[in-house]
Structures are given as C-alpha cells and as structure tokens.
User: Which sequence fits this backbone?
C-alpha cells in the first residue's frame, strides 16, 4: 500500500483494499505502521499533535466494521492520544468478527531526526 501524506486518503485506500480482497482467501491484513497519520516526531509542537491526528476511537470503529464485512482480521496501527501531550504509536488486533483481541502501545516514538525519544510513561 502506497501511503499519502493525507491521512484520510490512506484510510480510504486501506478500506478499499481490504474490501476488494473479501472474495479471496485473506485471513489477516497487516497495515503499514501509522498509515493513518504522520509520525508524531514530525510535528514541530507535540502539544498541538491532536489537531493533526485522526480520532483513534473512530478509526477503530471503522476498521472493526471493515473486518466483519471482509471476514478477515486486521492489525491496525494508529497514533493513540490518551491525554494532552501523551501520544503512543499503538496497534490493535481486530479479529474477523470485528472484536479487538489485543492492543499494544510502544513506549517510544522516533523524533523528527529519526532518533528514539525518551519513553513517555
């Protein structure tokens, strides 16, 4: 999947690709890391990051429906904003019935120069 700098375009492209594969024998989709947003380290002011990120609850709800319709599990990476200034590079595993079976939060996010920043705990 080729990603655009526009998050909504990437979300639409992923949903189309998954829907198109529903006639094939696809059991699991693994989407590119943070396909629905830019890397958080690219923001000049991380305190304003929420203005640039899709709502992760809405994104999860959308892809839970997509997984049910396609009958395939999805490894869904997303930027998870839990409060002002705290953002995680997260991943949810959604089963073919649209249920979140597992989630994972990385504790580091690369900064804009590609270096790992200290963990936010």
Assistant:
């Amino acid at each position: 999947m080729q990603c655009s700098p526009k998050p909504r375009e990437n979300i639409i492209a992923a949903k189309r690709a998954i829907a198109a594969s529903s006639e094939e024998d696809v059991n699991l989709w693994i989407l590119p890391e943070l396909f629905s947003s830019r890397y958080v380290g690219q923001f000049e002011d991380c305190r304003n990051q929420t203005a640039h990120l899709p709502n992760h609850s809405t994104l999860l709800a959308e892809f839970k429906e997509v997984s049910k319709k396609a009958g395939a599990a999805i490894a869904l990476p997303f930027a998870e904003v839990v409060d002002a200034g705290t953002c995680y590079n997260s991943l949810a595993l959604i089963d073919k019935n649209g249920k979140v079976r597992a989630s994972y939060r990385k504790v580091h996010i690369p900064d804009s120069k590609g270096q790992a920043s200290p963990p936010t705990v």
Notes: Helices lie at 7-20, 56-70. DSSP finds two helices and four strands in the chain. The beta strands are 28-30, 73-83, 86-94, 100-105.
